[in-house]
Specification:
CATH superfamily: Vaccinia Virus protein VP39
Shape: globular
CATH architecture: 3-Layer(aba) Sandwich
Number of helices: 9
Largest sheet: 7 strands, mixed
CATH topology: Rossmann fold
Strand content: 15-25%
Oligomer: single chain
CATH class: Alpha Beta
């Protein structure tokens, strides 16, 4: 496991995830991601002998991968894997300390799990090493714009009722940083994009109940250990309803899903041309005159 800064209390995260499974998990975001992941994988014109689904908290992604018919063997890899139905081969592991041999996997998928690792660069490096040449990583993370409404409502409520603000919503990954992280981890052809999913609720309390059933409540190390006061909770709900209600009275909750993909380098992949290797001038392609360095373009009359 990572010896660097500890942002997330990962033992507590495991406890919250186990509780969510006992409550009956809220899987609507996972199901959305699983459908989108299947669509993205369908655009890849190849088959895979072995794939690892890393950290995904239910079998929803694995079932989609199996239905695609493109993968021979799908391995579930997550901390609580042995507590689930034994449908797929399973490995109990932590996303921060992968047990896979170098160049042993052809595809790694992950749905809404990697945002909770303390050392995301280190995890990406481990995934890259585990992939065979021309192996693919395809993952979805919760992005930094998620739950902006809830964060605003809680911050105002805490400031009013408790005289200060404590960390309560995780500092999710910033989409602008992921491309650089993939490149530094050694991935080729990195692609990053994001989408916004809006879910509507009858109340802020209903949203909080769903977050509990996702196993996504506060697991920050710097969190305030005391429970949220009733007055703060009531004020949060009131502010949320005042600021983020639609005309029909239902409340918006925004989730940003950040998608990332990258390939383990292979000689068959496209590479940028070396400087000076072009066989045709850009000026010829544009039908204009080339202006050399230091030469000023003619003034227009």
């Amino acid at each position: 496991m990572s010896s660097g800064p500890q942002i997330f209390d990962r033992p507590l995260l495991r406890t919250r995830q186990k509780r969510a499974r006992g409550l009956g998990p809220a899987t609507f975001l996972l199901e959305h991601v699983a459908n989108e992941l299947g669509d993205r994988l369908s655009a890849v014109l190849r088959r895979f002998d072995i794939a690892v689904d890393l950290g995904t908290s239910t079998d929803v992604v694995r079932r989609g991968l199996a239905a695609s018919g493109k993968i021979k063997t799908i391995v579930a890899a997550e901390f609580g894997a042995l507590e689930l139905d034994n449908v797929f081969p399973r490995v109990v592991t932590d996303e921060e300390a992968l047990p896979f041999a170098d160049s042993s996997i052809e595809l790694v998928t992950s749905a809404l799990a990697l945002q909770f690792v303390n050392d995301l660069p280190g995890t990406l490096i481990q995934i890259r090493r585990a992939l065979k040449p021309d192996g693919l990583l395809l993952a979805a993370l919760v992005g930094g714009e998620s739950l902006a409404e809830l964060r605003e409502a809680i911050a105002i409520a805490e400031s009013e009722t408790e005289g200060g603000i404590s960390p309560r919503v995780a500092p999710f990954v910033d989409v602008g940083e992921l491309g650089g992280l993939l490149q530094r981890a050694g991935f080729a052809l990195p692609v990053i994009d994001n989408e916004r999913v809006v879910v509507r609720y009858d109340s802020a309390i209903a949203l909080m109940h769903d977050l509990r059933r996702m196993g996504a409540t506060n697991v920050l190390y710097e969190r305030r250990r005391k429970p949220l006061k009733r007055a703060t909770l009531d004020r949060t709900a009131a502010i949320y309803a005042e600021r983020f209600a639609d005309p029909d009275g239902r409340l918006r909750a925004s989730f940003e899903i950040v998608w990332l993909s990258g390939w383990a380098p292979h000689e068959s992949q496209q590479r940028p041309l070396k400087p000076g290797s072009a066989t045709r001038r850009l000026a010829d392609a544009l039908g204009t005159r080339e202006i050399s360095t230091g030469e000023k373009p003619p003034r227009s009359s």
